[in-house]
């Protein structure tokens, strides 16, 4: 039962990665706060930490241009770390760069909310 549940969650969340690049889940000033926890933050592949407001403002600018179509995700894994809280891990391949990614996702009712995200360059 638990394995089946985790596989279902893995399917649901891997379809949402890379985060903020699956535009069908929302791109507006109203959508983005609903997609992220109030205390959301991330550590970029550069090592810099970014808060929710900074990320949202940058996303609104990014969404004015076409989404790259040469990115791919692989090696997905998931674990449940709390009640309705999951850690999704994967590798993101971009032209000239591979990063290992982790996103903490919280299920609130029927909606998913991003709590934390980190990208680390694979050398």
Written account of the structure:
With about 120 residues, the chain is of the alpha+beta class. The chain has a single domain (about 1-120), classed as Roll (Nuclear Transport Factor 2, Chain: A). About 25% of the residues lie in helices and about 45% in strands. The protein is built from 3 helices and 6 strands, in the order ααββαββββ. The protein has helices spanning about 1-15, 30-35, 50-60, and strands at about 35-45, 50, 70-80, 85-95, 95-110, 110-120. It has a 6-stranded mixed β-sheet with strand order 2-1-6-5-4-3. The longest helix has 13 residues, at about 1-15. It is globular and about 40 Å long. About 15% of the residues are buried.
Give short descriptive properties of this protein.
single chain; alpha+beta; 123 residues; Nuclear Transport Factor 2, Chain: A; 6-stranded mixed β-sheet
So what's the CATH class?
A: Alpha Beta
Could you give the distance between the termini?
Answer: 38 Å
**Percent range of helical residues:** 10-25%
Report on the biggest sheet. 6 strands, mixed
Mean pLDDT across all amino acids: 93
Residue stretches low in confidence (pLDDT < 50, at least 5 long) are none
Kindly name the structural category.
alpha+beta
- Indicate the overall shape: globular
Strand order of the largest sheet: 2-1-6-5-4-3
Strand fraction? 35-45%
Per DSSP, the total helix count is: 3
CATH architecture descriptor name: Roll
CATH topology description? Nuclear Transport Factor 2, Chain: A
- Helix and strand element order: HHEEHEEEE
- Tally of discrete structural domains: 1
Number of strands: 6
Task: Give Rg in angstroms.
Answer: 14 Å
């Amino acid at each position: 039962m638990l394995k089946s549940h985790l596989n279902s969650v893995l399917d649901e969340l891997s379809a949402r990665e890379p985060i903020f690049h699956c535009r069908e889940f929302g791109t507006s000033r109203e959508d983005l706060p609903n997609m992220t926890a109030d205390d959301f933050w991330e550590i970029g592949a550069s090592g810099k930490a970014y808060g929710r407001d900074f990320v949202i403002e940058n996303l609104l600018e990014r969404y004015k241009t076409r989404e790259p179509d040469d990115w791919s995700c692989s090696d997905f894994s998931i674990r449940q770390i709390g009640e309705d809280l999951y850690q999704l891990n994967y590798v993101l391949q971009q032209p000239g760069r591979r990063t290992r990614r982790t996103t903490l996702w919280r299920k609130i009712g029927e909606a998913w909310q991003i709590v934390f995200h980190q990208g680390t360059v694979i050398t």
